[in-house]
Design goal:
This protein has 89 residues and is an alpha+beta fold. 42% of the residues lie in helices and 30% in strands. It has 3 helices and 6 strands, in the order ββββαβααβ. α1 runs antiparallel to α2.
Length: 89
């Protein structure tokens, strides 16, 4: 994914709720549950609205005070894990 490409959750096919310190997501097309935790909880609202990789990266760097390369690697791993839940806009 490039820095400016818009990405968002597939909101028409997902239901989610915040439970304790994680977000529990149900994919209604496959009846599969997913859990979003840790820094992903801070990123989820941006993904619901639609955002870019660059914006997500900035939130990680600012919120968790991590170096850019570490934030980028963590973000890429998170987005890869969330691929079934996302769509590009």
């Amino acid at each position: 994914m490039n820095e400016a490409q818009q990405v968002a959750v597939r909101s028409e096919e997902l239901a989610w709720n915040e439970v304790d310190d994680q977000i529990v997501v149900l994919d209604t097309t496959t009846s599969t549950y997913h859990a979003v935790s840790g820094a992903g909880v801070a990123l989820w609202p941006l993904l619901v609205e639609g955002t870019t990789r660059a914006d997500l990266l900035e939130v990680l760097r600012r919120t968790y005070d991590v170096p850019g390369d570490r934030a980028a690697a963590d973000l890429d791993a998170f987005l890869d894990a969330c691929t079934p839940l996302l769509r590009t806009v």
